[in-house]
Amino acid sequence: MTDSGVDTSNESSDNPIFDLSHCVIEFNPPAIPINQAGQPMPVDYLNESHDYIGKIKCSTKARHYRLDKYARYGSSIIASRNKRLRFAASMNNIELVEELLMAGADPNSADEHKRSALHFAACRGYVDVVKLLLRHGANPNNKDTLGNTPLHLAACINHIPVVIELLDAGTDVSSNDRNGHNPIQLAQSKLKLIKMRPSGAGNFEETKVLIGEICLVVEMMVKYMKIQKADAGDLECVRQRLDKLSTREQVDSEVQNLLDSLETLQLR
Fold first, then answer.
1. How does residue 209 score in pLDDT terms, banded at 50, 70 and 90?
2. Mean pLDDT of all residues in the chain?
3. Helix 233-242 and helix 204-227: axis angle, to 10°?
4. Higher-scoring residue by pLDDT: 261, 10
5. For residue 3, is pLDDT > 70?
6. Superkingdom of the source (predicted)?
7. Is residue 221 a contact partner of residue 186, using CB atoms and an 8 Å limit?
């Protein structure tokens, strides 16, 4: 069977509709022979048969429509997956977050307010989701339309563990939101709340909980100051003293000392 010359190799089998107005005939004759004098020799195309192969390329409305439909469908799937990722992060559904990330969801995709999944997890204090998103490449320095990074949002809700994770991930601590939130302000507000908390009449377990919270504040401040290349020596000493506290009076005294030091703290 001879070659028909029509290239149909990448057409589908569902009877495409040819748009003949866009047909292009491609004809590739062999090279013109040259005689010994270097002159071209005439070739008789009319009186002699030749096995010259040509191609007719036709655009198909059906194929173009299908490709366009598949492209739009693929974009829709990706957009839906990214939207579900943000929703799953906001609901602390770590299994679904991981499933969507493994399926190709973009950890840095954002909604109309430029809020990413990391923003949603950070502002709700979902530290495990934050860790997972960061491992999959979520950028901790992305800002929403109000200038908030995930760090700012975690600071607003006083969630120290999330702040620590974001600091470890390389958050730009010199970048403030419109209200100037940063870890120093977070430490001050957290310590004031601890100091205002009513005493449990000598309850040692409650005192241990308070000490644990103060330790987190100190850990956060140490990380913050090291990033800022400031001296964190005094805070290192505080961590050592915290291990020796046993009463609420000692806790209150240490908290006040920390607050006093934060009031005078000068960071670049």
1. confident
2. 74
3. 160
4. 261
5. no
6. Eukaryota
7. no
Q: How far apart are CA 182 and CA 174, in angstroms?
A: 8
Question: Between the CA of residue 201 and those of 61, 246, 249, what are the distances in Å?
Answer: 82, 13, 11
State the amino acid at position 219 in one-letter form.
E
User: In 3D, which of 136, 175, 129 has the Cα closest to residue 152?
Assistant: 175
The larger pLDDT score, comparing residue 183 to residue 4, is at: 183
Sequence-ordered list of residues with C-beta below 8 angstroms from that of 139, at least 6 positions apart, any chain: 108, 116, 118
What distance in Å separates the CA atoms of residue 54 and residue 2, rounded to the nearest whole number?
Answer: 12
Closest CA to 142 of 97, 111, 180, 186: 111
Integer Cα distance of 101 and 95 in angstroms: 10
Instruction: Give the amino acid at 54.
Output: G
DSSP label of 121: H
- The residue among 160, 162, 96, 92 whose CA lies nearest residue 127 is 162
Start-to-end Cα distance in the chain: 82
Phi-psi region of 3 (alpha: psi -120 to 50; beta: other; left: phi over 0): beta
Q: What is the pLDDT of residue 130?
A: 97
C-alpha 153/C-alpha 166 separation (Å) is: 11
Degrees, nearest 5: CA angle 105-110-116: 85
Is pLDDT larger for residue 241 or for residue 27?
241
Token pair in block for residue 237: 């000493």
Q: Which of 114, 100, 112, 185 is nearest to 150 (CA)?
A: 114
Q: Which of 183, 82, 100, 90 is nearest to 130 (CA)?
A: 90
